[in-house]
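Q: What residues go here?
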């Protein structure tokens, strides 16, 4: 989508961090913006903070883990703004720990928000986008954790690899309809992702606090520090807008992480050297 002015964007996780920065950048580009989020107070403040920027910015409460709720938010957006062109499936949460010490409830929560939230967003908006025929773009937020693993945040990594794979498959499916797909894979960004537990619903149990001094506690502390020193969400948003305009599938923001991804790919391709069945 080369021209964004006058179009409409829908952004999940729009009350904070990367989602709010995307909302601001879309408003600055002259788009109508619907911010969707579960955190009501933060959402109201986010909408207020953008009021004087774009033509129209609104907010809607929306839990991306619930397909019907995302459909309701989509319909409210059509009613408010008419056709929707850019959908950012961005809401996400993180829970720390290794495969064997993360509660199953945490696995379900992270996968429900980070993976099923993207599925629900695509399903709620795709029929509408195909039908209006004006072109469109999905931006699915994954992470560098969707390109290489090793940080010990197992459900998070699993969810982000899934979003990368799904987005790669979706792009050629939607290209014939003039609908682009980008998968956003940032490294560390200065947001509130480290405080994800603030939005954890009761049905997924309590947030696990790792025992002080354990490897998990040290890992969580290290990651919190890297998030505090992360890049500005506005820089991520600027990269995303450029990617939408140029219809780029992969959206990276941290060039210094290239070597880690190359290392993974080198290990994968090296495994092909051993595929010959010994004679
Ligand atoms: N911050 C980073 O370093 C980083 C790096 C790579 C990827 N990401 C991804 O970026 C995305 C945005 O996260 P962020 O870093 O801006 O964190 P953030 O916590 O600042 O913002 C996330 C937003 O998602 C909302 N949210 C949580 N559960 C929700 C639900 N069920 N339904 C709707 N909204 C919900 C939260 O209320 C919050 O407003 C996430 O998908 C995250 O995994 C973040």
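A:
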């Amino acid at each position: 989508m080369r021209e964004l002015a006058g179009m409409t964007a829908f952004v999940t996780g729009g009350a904070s961090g990367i989602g709010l920065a995307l909302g601001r950048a879309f408003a600055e580009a002259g788009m109508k913006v619907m911010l969707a989020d579960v955190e009501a107070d933060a959402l109201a403040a986010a909408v207020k903070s953008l009021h004087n920027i774009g033509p129209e910015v609104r907010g809607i409460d929306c839990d991306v883990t619930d397909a019907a709720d995302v459909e309701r938010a989509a319909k409210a957006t059509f009613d408010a703004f008419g056709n929707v062109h850019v959908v950012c499936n961005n809401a996400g949460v993180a829970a720390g720990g290794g495969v064997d010490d993360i509660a199953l409830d945490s696995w379900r929560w992270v996968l429900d928000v980070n993976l099923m939230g993207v599925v629900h967003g695509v399903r709620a908006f795709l029929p509408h986008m195909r039908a209006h025929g004006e072109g469109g773009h999905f931006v699915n937020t994954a992470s560098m954790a969707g390109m290489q693993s090793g940080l010990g945040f197992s459900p998070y990594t699993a969810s982000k690899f899934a979003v990368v794979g799904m987005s790669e498959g979706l792009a050629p499916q939607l290209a014939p309809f003039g609908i682009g797909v980008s998968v956003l894979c940032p490294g560390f960004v200065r947001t509130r992702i480290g405080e994800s537990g603030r939005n954890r619903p009761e049905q997924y149990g309590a947030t696990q606090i790792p025992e002080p001094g354990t490897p998990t506690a040290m890992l969580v502390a290290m990651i919190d520090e890297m998030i505090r020193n992360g890049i500005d969400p506005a820089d991520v948003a600027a990269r995303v807008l450029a990617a939408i305009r140029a219809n780029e599938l992969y959206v990276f923001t941290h060039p210094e992480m290239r070597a880690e991804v190359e290392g993974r790919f080198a290990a994968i391709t090296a495994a092909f050297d051993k595929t010959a069945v010994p004679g």
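A: Context that may help when evaluating the design: The longest helix spans residues 104-132. Residues 96 and 153 are 5 Å apart (CA to CA).
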